[in-house]
Predict the structure.
Amino acid sequence: MARYTGPVCKLCRREGVKLMLKGERCFGPKCAIEKRNYPPGQTGSGYRRRQSSDYAMQLREKQKARRIYGVLERQFRRHYAMASRKKGVTGKALLQILERRLDNVVYRLGFADSRSQARQLVNHGHFTLNGRKTDIPSALVSVGDVVGVRPESRKRTFFKDLEESKVLTKKAIPSWLSLNAAQMQATVQSLPEREELEVALNEQLIVELYSR
């Protein structure tokens, strides 16, 4: 499957906001947005972003969402189609679907510093969904589902370090998830509400783009 393998800091600079693609580095002075907050290919910090058309703003918002969640175009379209068939606000339903992806849940629980790292951990089969080994990052969790680290994987250095450093107990977990750090498993308590989602997105622009 195709995947972007270039410098991810360029993606943040292109969108003009932090997409949180490099974990802890995004909070430090080495963040590209802190040093060069202008699009790649431009010369100097004197660059001024031009006023964009409505279509350009809608497209950029869709690209921003794709890059935040690490989803390719075809898969993003499938998520949107699923959201459009649900009752209620389509934009909210789309964000709920993106948040319910297994790789995002692993990231939200603090098992990974970024969604790309979480996707890799899921791909390598380190997590279970309702007791069954799952290696599909795009698998959607539902209310009542239990996500956990496989017993065999807990013996690995990566997860041992997480347990010994008690990192999981220090990270803020969304209220729609309930984490048992000692057992390294979590339960999906509810669907995430819009105000609980810490993503700088205007989902209505995405809906307008696909409604053209």
